[in-house]
Fold these 2 entries.
Entry 1:
Amino acid sequence: MKLTAKIIKQIIGDKGRIFNVTFTKKDGSTRSFNARLGVHSYASKTGGGRKYDPSDYNMIGVFSLDDLGYRTVSVDNLIRLKANGLEIVFN
Protein backbone atom coordinates (compact mmCIF):
# COMPACT_ATOMS: atom_id res chain seq x y z
CA MET A 1 0.00 0.00 0.00
CA LYS A 2 1.35 3.41 -0.97
CA LEU A 3 1.52 6.04 1.73
CA THR A 4 -0.67 8.98 0.74
CA ALA A 5 -1.53 12.43 2.08
CA LYS A 6 -4.99 11.13 3.02
CA ILE A 7 -3.50 8.38 5.22
CA ILE A 8 -1.16 10.84 6.92
CA LYS A 9 -4.06 13.19 7.68
CA GLN A 10 -5.97 10.27 9.24
CA ILE A 11 -2.96 9.43 11.43
CA ILE A 12 -2.65 13.04 12.60
CA GLY A 13 -6.34 13.26 13.38
CA ASP A 14 -8.40 16.39 13.98
CA LYS A 15 -7.52 19.68 12.35
CA GLY A 16 -5.81 21.90 14.86
CA ARG A 17 -4.01 19.04 16.58
CA ILE A 18 -0.29 19.70 17.06
CA PHE A 19 2.15 17.12 15.69
CA ASN A 20 5.86 16.87 14.93
CA VAL A 21 7.17 16.03 11.48
CA THR A 22 10.67 15.26 10.21
CA PHE A 23 11.35 15.05 6.48
CA THR A 24 13.98 15.45 3.79
CA LYS A 25 13.79 18.73 1.90
CA LYS A 26 14.32 19.12 -1.87
CA ASP A 27 17.93 20.20 -1.29
CA GLY A 28 18.64 16.97 0.65
CA SER A 29 18.77 18.52 4.11
CA THR A 30 16.59 17.32 6.97
CA ARG A 31 13.99 19.50 8.65
CA SER A 32 11.87 18.94 11.73
CA PHE A 33 9.18 21.16 13.24
CA ASN A 34 5.93 21.23 15.18
CA ALA A 35 2.92 21.81 12.95
CA ARG A 36 -0.85 21.94 12.73
CA LEU A 37 -3.40 21.23 10.03
CA GLY A 38 -6.29 23.53 9.23
CA VAL A 39 -4.81 26.91 10.23
CA HIS A 40 -6.28 29.67 8.06
CA SER A 41 -5.92 32.84 10.12
CA TYR A 42 -2.54 33.85 8.71
CA ALA A 43 -3.61 33.19 5.11
CA SER A 44 -6.36 35.78 5.31
CA LYS A 45 -3.86 38.42 6.42
CA THR A 46 -1.69 37.95 3.34
CA GLY A 47 -4.63 37.75 0.97
CA GLY A 48 -3.00 34.88 -0.86
CA GLY A 49 -3.76 31.26 -1.18
CA ARG A 50 -2.52 28.19 -2.92
CA LYS A 51 -3.10 27.87 -6.61
CA TYR A 52 -2.97 24.06 -6.34
CA ASP A 53 -4.10 21.22 -4.09
CA PRO A 54 -1.07 19.70 -2.30
CA SER A 55 -2.70 16.26 -2.15
CA ASP A 56 -2.59 16.14 -5.98
CA TYR A 57 1.21 15.94 -5.57
CA ASN A 58 1.16 13.62 -2.51
CA MET A 59 1.95 16.50 -0.18
CA ILE A 60 0.28 17.92 2.91
CA GLY A 61 -0.08 21.61 3.66
CA VAL A 62 0.72 22.46 7.28
CA PHE A 63 1.28 25.51 9.45
CA SER A 64 4.70 25.52 11.13
CA LEU A 65 4.48 26.59 14.76
CA ASP A 66 8.25 27.09 14.92
CA ASP A 67 8.40 29.97 12.42
CA LEU A 68 4.67 30.77 12.01
CA GLY A 69 4.51 30.03 8.30
CA TYR A 70 2.75 27.73 5.89
CA ARG A 71 4.77 24.79 4.56
CA THR A 72 4.15 21.82 2.31
CA VAL A 73 5.64 18.49 3.23
CA SER A 74 6.12 15.69 0.71
CA VAL A 75 4.67 12.45 2.04
CA ASP A 76 7.26 10.55 -0.02
CA ASN A 77 10.09 12.24 1.92
CA LEU A 78 8.78 11.70 5.45
CA ILE A 79 11.30 10.38 7.96
CA ARG A 80 9.30 10.59 11.19
CA LEU A 81 5.84 11.63 12.31
CA LYS A 82 4.79 11.99 15.92
CA ALA A 83 1.09 12.55 16.60
CA ASN A 84 -1.46 11.48 19.19
CA GLY A 85 1.24 9.88 21.36
CA LEU A 86 2.27 7.68 18.44
CA GLU A 87 5.65 7.92 16.74
CA ILE A 88 6.05 6.46 13.25
CA VAL A 89 9.44 6.15 11.58
CA PHE A 90 9.38 5.76 7.80
CA ASN A 91 12.02 4.13 5.60
Entry 2:
Amino acid sequence: MFSRERDLKGALSVDLPLSVVIPVYNAEDYLALSVGAILSQSFHEFELILVDDGSTDRSGEICEEYAKQDNRIKVYHKPNGGHSSAVNYGLERMTGKYVMICDTDDYYEPNAFEIAVNRIEASPDCDTVIFAIYRPDKEPVEDPASKVTFEKRVIDRCLLSGQTYAYCDIGFHIESTWAKIMRAEVIRKHHVRMPEHLFLDEDAVYCLHLFQHCRKVAFDSHHIYHYEIRYDSFCHKYSDVAVKMLPLILQEQERYLEKYHPNDLEYSEANDLAVFAWFNEAEEHYFFNENNTLSGKQVYQEYKKLLQEETVCKHVSRIKAQKGDSLMRRFRLALYRHPTYPMFQLYRRLKKQK
Protein backbone atom coordinates (compact mmCIF):
# COMPACT_ATOMS: atom_id res chain seq x y z
CA MET A 1 0.00 0.00 0.00
CA PHE A 2 1.03 3.60 -0.54
CA SER A 3 0.95 6.09 2.33
CA ARG A 4 1.13 9.80 3.07
CA GLU A 5 3.59 9.62 5.98
CA ARG A 6 5.72 12.71 6.09
CA ASP A 7 7.36 13.74 9.40
CA LEU A 8 10.60 12.45 10.89
CA LYS A 9 10.30 11.05 14.42
CA GLY A 10 13.76 12.03 15.62
CA ALA A 11 17.21 11.46 14.19
CA LEU A 12 18.52 7.98 13.42
CA SER A 13 22.08 6.78 13.16
CA VAL A 14 22.84 5.58 9.64
CA ASP A 15 25.57 3.04 8.98
CA LEU A 16 24.90 1.95 5.41
CA PRO A 17 25.99 4.00 2.40
CA LEU A 18 23.89 5.96 -0.04
CA SER A 19 24.59 5.95 -3.78
CA VAL A 20 23.97 9.17 -5.71
CA VAL A 21 23.85 8.97 -9.52
CA ILE A 22 24.33 11.96 -11.81
CA PRO A 23 24.15 11.48 -15.60
CA VAL A 24 26.49 14.03 -17.20
CA TYR A 25 26.36 15.34 -20.75
CA ASN A 26 27.88 18.66 -21.83
CA ALA A 27 27.23 20.16 -18.41
CA GLU A 28 30.46 22.01 -17.72
CA ASP A 29 28.53 25.15 -16.71
CA TYR A 30 26.36 23.33 -14.15
CA LEU A 31 28.57 20.73 -12.45
CA ALA A 32 29.94 23.16 -9.87
CA LEU A 33 26.43 23.76 -8.55
CA SER A 34 25.09 20.19 -8.55
CA VAL A 35 28.28 18.43 -7.43
CA GLY A 36 29.20 21.22 -5.01
CA ALA A 37 25.83 20.89 -3.28
CA ILE A 38 26.37 17.15 -2.89
CA LEU A 39 29.89 17.48 -1.48
CA SER A 40 28.56 20.00 1.05
CA GLN A 41 25.93 17.62 2.44
CA SER A 42 25.55 17.24 6.21
CA PHE A 43 25.37 13.47 5.60
CA HIS A 44 28.76 12.15 4.49
CA GLU A 45 28.37 8.39 3.99
CA PHE A 46 27.65 8.23 0.28
CA GLU A 47 29.24 7.44 -3.04
CA LEU A 48 28.74 9.87 -5.90
CA ILE A 49 28.60 8.18 -9.31
CA LEU A 50 29.23 10.58 -12.18
CA VAL A 51 28.46 9.06 -15.58
CA ASP A 52 29.98 11.06 -18.42
CA ASP A 53 27.77 10.17 -21.38
CA GLY A 54 30.21 11.02 -24.17
CA SER A 55 30.38 14.74 -23.43
CA THR A 56 32.08 16.90 -26.07
CA ASP A 57 32.88 19.77 -23.70
CA ARG A 58 35.04 19.70 -20.53
CA SER A 59 32.47 17.83 -18.43
CA GLY A 60 34.50 14.62 -18.34
CA GLU A 61 37.66 16.43 -17.26
CA ILE A 62 35.79 18.35 -14.55
CA CYS A 63 34.37 15.08 -13.21
CA GLU A 64 37.88 13.64 -12.98
CA GLU A 65 39.08 16.75 -11.14
CA TYR A 66 36.34 16.28 -8.56
CA ALA A 67 37.28 12.61 -8.15
CA LYS A 68 40.87 13.59 -7.33
CA GLN A 69 39.57 15.85 -4.56
CA ASP A 70 37.17 13.37 -2.93
CA ASN A 71 37.49 9.58 -2.81
CA ARG A 72 33.71 9.20 -2.51
CA ILE A 73 33.40 10.13 -6.19
CA LYS A 74 33.45 7.49 -8.92
CA VAL A 75 33.67 8.67 -12.52
CA TYR A 76 32.70 6.58 -15.52
CA HIS A 77 33.05 7.57 -19.18
CA LYS A 78 30.90 5.94 -21.84
CA PRO A 79 29.92 6.60 -25.46
CA ASN A 80 26.92 8.86 -25.81
CA GLY A 81 23.71 6.88 -25.43
CA GLY A 82 21.29 9.38 -23.95
CA HIS A 83 20.03 10.29 -20.50
CA SER A 84 18.41 6.91 -19.81
CA SER A 85 21.49 4.91 -20.70
CA ALA A 86 23.64 7.10 -18.43
CA VAL A 87 21.25 6.66 -15.48
CA ASN A 88 21.12 2.90 -16.07
CA TYR A 89 24.91 2.75 -16.23
CA GLY A 90 25.06 4.34 -12.80
CA LEU A 91 22.34 2.11 -11.33
CA GLU A 92 24.24 -0.97 -12.46
CA ARG A 93 27.34 0.18 -10.57
CA MET A 94 25.83 1.48 -7.34
CA THR A 95 26.84 -0.22 -4.10
CA GLY A 96 24.63 1.65 -1.62
CA LYS A 97 21.64 0.48 0.36
CA TYR A 98 19.70 3.43 -1.02
CA VAL A 99 19.98 5.46 -4.20
CA MET A 100 19.14 9.01 -5.22
CA ILE A 101 19.44 10.64 -8.64
CA CYS A 102 20.21 14.23 -9.60
CA ASP A 103 20.23 16.07 -12.93
CA THR A 104 23.35 18.13 -13.60
CA ASP A 105 21.45 21.41 -13.81
CA ASP A 106 19.59 20.87 -10.50
CA TYR A 107 20.83 20.60 -6.93
CA TYR A 108 19.96 19.25 -3.48
CA GLU A 109 19.54 21.19 -0.24
CA PRO A 110 22.55 20.87 2.15
CA ASN A 111 20.68 18.54 4.52
CA ALA A 112 18.79 16.62 1.82
CA PHE A 113 20.63 13.31 2.19
CA GLU A 114 20.36 13.35 5.97
CA ILE A 115 16.62 13.97 5.78
CA ALA A 116 16.11 11.37 3.05
CA VAL A 117 18.11 8.55 4.64
CA ASN A 118 16.61 9.15 8.09
CA ARG A 119 13.14 9.22 6.56
CA ILE A 120 13.39 5.89 4.77
CA GLU A 121 15.25 4.27 7.69
CA ALA A 122 12.35 5.29 9.92
CA SER A 123 9.99 3.18 7.76
CA PRO A 124 11.56 -0.25 7.20
CA ASP A 125 8.63 -1.34 5.00
CA CYS A 126 8.89 1.75 2.76
CA ASP A 127 10.85 1.29 -0.49
CA THR A 128 10.59 4.80 -1.97
CA VAL A 129 10.03 8.25 -0.49
CA ILE A 130 9.00 11.10 -2.78
CA PHE A 131 10.06 14.56 -1.59
CA ALA A 132 8.77 18.00 -2.48
CA ILE A 133 10.82 20.26 -4.74
CA TYR A 134 11.54 23.94 -5.20
CA ARG A 135 10.75 25.42 -8.61
CA PRO A 136 11.74 28.95 -9.65
CA ASP A 137 8.33 29.51 -11.27
CA LYS A 138 6.21 28.39 -8.28
CA GLU A 139 5.86 29.31 -4.63
CA PRO A 140 6.45 26.27 -2.42
CA VAL A 141 3.28 24.79 -0.93
CA GLU A 142 3.31 24.42 2.84
CA ASP A 143 3.11 20.79 4.01
CA PRO A 144 2.27 19.42 0.53
CA ALA A 145 2.11 15.80 1.73
CA SER A 146 -1.01 16.62 3.73
CA LYS A 147 -2.73 17.66 0.49
CA VAL A 148 -2.11 14.43 -1.39
CA THR A 149 -5.06 12.15 -1.88
CA PHE A 150 -3.33 8.98 -2.89
CA GLU A 151 -3.54 5.28 -3.53
CA LYS A 152 -1.48 3.13 -5.85
CA ARG A 153 -4.07 2.84 -8.61
CA VAL A 154 -4.49 6.62 -8.67
CA ILE A 155 -0.82 7.34 -9.18
CA ASP A 156 -0.43 4.54 -11.71
CA ARG A 157 -3.26 5.97 -13.80
CA CYS A 158 -1.77 9.46 -13.57
CA LEU A 159 1.57 8.18 -14.84
CA LEU A 160 -0.02 6.15 -17.64
CA SER A 161 -2.13 9.07 -18.86
CA GLY A 162 0.55 11.74 -18.44
CA GLN A 163 -1.84 13.68 -16.19
CA THR A 164 0.46 14.35 -13.21
CA TYR A 165 -0.38 18.05 -12.86
CA ALA A 166 -2.25 17.72 -9.55
CA TYR A 167 0.94 16.44 -7.94
CA CYS A 168 3.26 18.88 -9.74
CA ASP A 169 1.14 21.84 -8.67
CA ILE A 170 1.82 21.14 -4.99
CA GLY A 171 5.48 20.25 -5.45
CA PHE A 172 5.71 16.50 -6.11
CA HIS A 173 7.11 15.27 -9.42
CA ILE A 174 5.92 11.68 -9.20
CA GLU A 175 6.98 11.06 -12.80
CA SER A 176 10.67 11.95 -12.31
CA THR A 177 13.60 9.95 -10.99
CA TRP A 178 15.00 12.78 -8.87
CA ALA A 179 13.77 14.06 -5.48
CA LYS A 180 13.26 10.45 -4.41
CA ILE A 181 15.19 8.05 -2.22
CA MET A 182 14.81 4.47 -3.37
CA ARG A 183 15.75 1.18 -1.76
CA ALA A 184 18.49 -0.12 -4.05
CA GLU A 185 17.66 -3.77 -3.43
CA VAL A 186 14.28 -3.29 -5.14
CA ILE A 187 16.01 -1.88 -8.23
CA ARG A 188 18.59 -4.66 -8.27
CA LYS A 189 16.20 -7.53 -7.61
CA HIS A 190 13.63 -6.50 -10.22
CA HIS A 191 16.12 -4.93 -12.65
CA VAL A 192 14.24 -1.63 -12.74
CA ARG A 193 15.76 0.45 -15.52
CA MET A 194 14.89 3.39 -17.72
CA PRO A 195 13.81 2.52 -21.31
CA GLU A 196 16.75 3.63 -23.43
CA HIS A 197 14.79 3.91 -26.69
CA LEU A 198 12.57 6.67 -25.25
CA PHE A 199 13.64 10.31 -25.13
CA LEU A 200 10.39 11.53 -23.53
CA ASP A 201 8.40 10.03 -20.65
CA GLU A 202 11.22 7.61 -19.86
CA ASP A 203 11.21 8.73 -16.22
CA ALA A 204 7.49 8.01 -15.89
CA VAL A 205 7.88 4.52 -17.35
CA TYR A 206 10.74 3.89 -14.91
CA CYS A 207 8.55 5.03 -12.01
CA LEU A 208 5.69 2.77 -13.10
CA HIS A 209 8.00 -0.25 -12.86
CA LEU A 210 9.63 0.96 -9.64
CA PHE A 211 6.32 1.54 -7.83
CA GLN A 212 5.04 -1.82 -9.06
CA HIS A 213 7.67 -3.56 -6.92
CA CYS A 214 7.58 -1.26 -3.88
CA ARG A 215 5.86 -2.48 -0.73
CA LYS A 216 5.08 1.13 0.16
CA VAL A 217 5.80 4.56 -1.29
CA ALA A 218 5.49 7.62 0.93
CA PHE A 219 5.32 11.38 0.39
CA ASP A 220 7.40 13.74 2.50
CA SER A 221 6.84 17.50 2.78
CA HIS A 222 10.52 18.44 3.05
CA HIS A 223 11.56 20.48 0.01
CA ILE A 224 14.99 18.94 -0.60
CA TYR A 225 15.50 19.43 -4.35
CA HIS A 226 15.89 22.53 -6.51
CA TYR A 227 14.56 22.05 -10.01
CA GLU A 228 16.03 24.58 -12.41
CA ILE A 229 14.24 25.48 -15.64
CA ARG A 230 16.56 25.73 -18.65
CA TYR A 231 14.77 27.07 -21.69
CA ASP A 232 17.55 25.78 -23.95
CA SER A 233 17.05 22.26 -22.63
CA PHE A 234 15.72 19.33 -24.62
CA CYS A 235 12.28 19.68 -23.02
CA HIS A 236 11.79 23.30 -24.03
CA LYS A 237 13.25 23.73 -27.50
CA TYR A 238 11.65 23.34 -30.93
CA SER A 239 11.71 19.63 -31.71
CA ASP A 240 9.74 16.85 -33.36
CA VAL A 241 10.77 14.37 -30.66
CA ALA A 242 7.25 14.16 -29.19
CA VAL A 243 5.94 13.29 -32.66
CA LYS A 244 8.41 10.41 -32.96
CA MET A 245 8.01 9.25 -29.37
CA LEU A 246 4.20 9.10 -29.01
CA PRO A 247 3.74 5.64 -30.59
CA LEU A 248 6.77 4.31 -28.69
CA ILE A 249 5.50 5.66 -25.35
CA LEU A 250 2.12 4.02 -25.88
CA GLN A 251 3.78 0.74 -26.85
CA GLU A 252 6.14 0.76 -23.86
CA GLN A 253 3.24 1.34 -21.49
CA GLU A 254 1.29 -1.42 -23.23
CA ARG A 255 4.11 -3.82 -22.39
CA TYR A 256 3.95 -2.72 -18.76
CA LEU A 257 0.19 -3.36 -18.69
CA GLU A 258 0.50 -6.75 -20.37
CA LYS A 259 3.05 -7.80 -17.76
CA TYR A 260 1.45 -6.47 -14.58
CA HIS A 261 -2.15 -5.43 -15.25
CA PRO A 262 -3.58 -7.52 -18.09
CA ASN A 263 -7.29 -7.04 -18.74
CA ASP A 264 -7.43 -4.10 -16.30
CA LEU A 265 -9.84 -1.72 -18.05
CA GLU A 266 -9.04 1.32 -15.86
CA TYR A 267 -5.33 1.06 -16.53
CA SER A 268 -5.89 0.49 -20.23
CA GLU A 269 -8.15 3.54 -20.45
CA ALA A 270 -5.52 5.64 -18.68
CA ASN A 271 -2.93 4.62 -21.26
CA ASP A 272 -5.34 5.60 -24.05
CA LEU A 273 -5.58 9.09 -22.55
CA ALA A 274 -1.82 9.57 -22.94
CA VAL A 275 -2.70 10.60 -26.51
CA PHE A 276 -4.03 13.92 -25.15
CA ALA A 277 -0.93 14.63 -23.06
CA TRP A 278 1.60 13.84 -25.75
CA PHE A 279 -0.26 15.60 -28.55
CA ASN A 280 -0.07 18.68 -26.31
CA GLU A 281 3.70 18.23 -26.23
CA ALA A 282 3.90 17.69 -29.97
CA GLU A 283 1.78 20.78 -30.64
CA GLU A 284 3.78 23.01 -28.30
CA HIS A 285 7.22 21.94 -29.47
CA TYR A 286 6.58 21.12 -33.11
CA PHE A 287 3.22 21.36 -34.89
CA PHE A 288 2.19 24.80 -33.58
CA ASN A 289 5.62 26.06 -32.60
CA GLU A 290 6.55 29.49 -33.97
CA ASN A 291 9.79 28.03 -35.37
CA ASN A 292 7.95 25.56 -37.58
CA THR A 293 8.30 26.95 -41.13
CA LEU A 294 6.00 24.43 -42.83
CA SER A 295 2.79 25.66 -44.45
CA GLY A 296 -0.54 25.10 -42.74
CA LYS A 297 -1.34 22.32 -45.20
CA GLN A 298 1.99 20.60 -44.59
CA VAL A 299 1.56 20.76 -40.81
CA TYR A 300 -1.92 19.31 -41.19
CA GLN A 301 -0.63 16.42 -43.28
CA GLU A 302 1.98 15.56 -40.64
CA TYR A 303 -0.59 15.91 -37.85
CA LYS A 304 -2.99 13.61 -39.70
CA LYS A 305 -0.20 11.12 -40.43
CA LEU A 306 0.56 10.81 -36.71
CA LEU A 307 -3.12 10.27 -35.91
CA GLN A 308 -3.25 7.52 -38.53
CA GLU A 309 -0.17 5.73 -37.17
CA GLU A 310 -1.34 2.25 -36.16
CA THR A 311 -0.64 2.44 -32.41
CA VAL A 312 -1.94 5.99 -32.03
CA CYS A 313 -5.06 5.24 -34.05
CA LYS A 314 -5.80 2.19 -31.90
CA HIS A 315 -5.66 4.19 -28.68
CA VAL A 316 -7.67 7.10 -30.10
CA SER A 317 -10.44 4.71 -31.19
CA ARG A 318 -10.78 3.42 -27.62
CA ILE A 319 -11.05 6.80 -25.86
CA LYS A 320 -14.52 7.37 -24.44
CA ALA A 321 -15.98 10.83 -23.89
CA GLN A 322 -16.66 11.46 -20.20
CA LYS A 323 -19.56 13.38 -18.70
CA GLY A 324 -17.30 16.09 -17.27
CA ASP A 325 -15.21 16.61 -20.41
CA SER A 326 -14.83 20.22 -21.54
CA LEU A 327 -16.00 21.33 -24.96
CA MET A 328 -12.37 21.68 -26.05
CA ARG A 329 -11.58 18.11 -25.00
CA ARG A 330 -14.61 16.80 -26.89
CA PHE A 331 -13.58 18.82 -29.92
CA ARG A 332 -10.06 17.40 -29.74
CA LEU A 333 -11.38 13.86 -29.61
CA ALA A 334 -13.58 14.53 -32.64
CA LEU A 335 -10.55 15.96 -34.47
CA TYR A 336 -8.40 12.97 -33.57
CA ARG A 337 -11.00 10.60 -34.98
CA HIS A 338 -11.90 12.61 -38.09
CA PRO A 339 -8.98 14.98 -38.80
CA THR A 340 -10.37 17.20 -41.55
CA TYR A 341 -8.43 20.28 -42.57
CA PRO A 342 -11.18 22.79 -41.52
CA MET A 343 -11.35 21.20 -38.05
CA PHE A 344 -7.57 21.27 -37.78
CA GLN A 345 -7.43 24.96 -38.73
CA LEU A 346 -10.15 25.83 -36.21
CA TYR A 347 -8.36 23.91 -33.47
CA ARG A 348 -5.09 25.65 -34.28
CA ARG A 349 -6.77 29.05 -33.98
CA LEU A 350 -8.39 28.09 -30.66
CA LYS A 351 -5.05 26.94 -29.29
CA LYS A 352 -3.40 30.25 -30.22
CA GLN A 353 -6.14 32.18 -28.43
CA LYS A 354 -5.57 30.37 -25.13
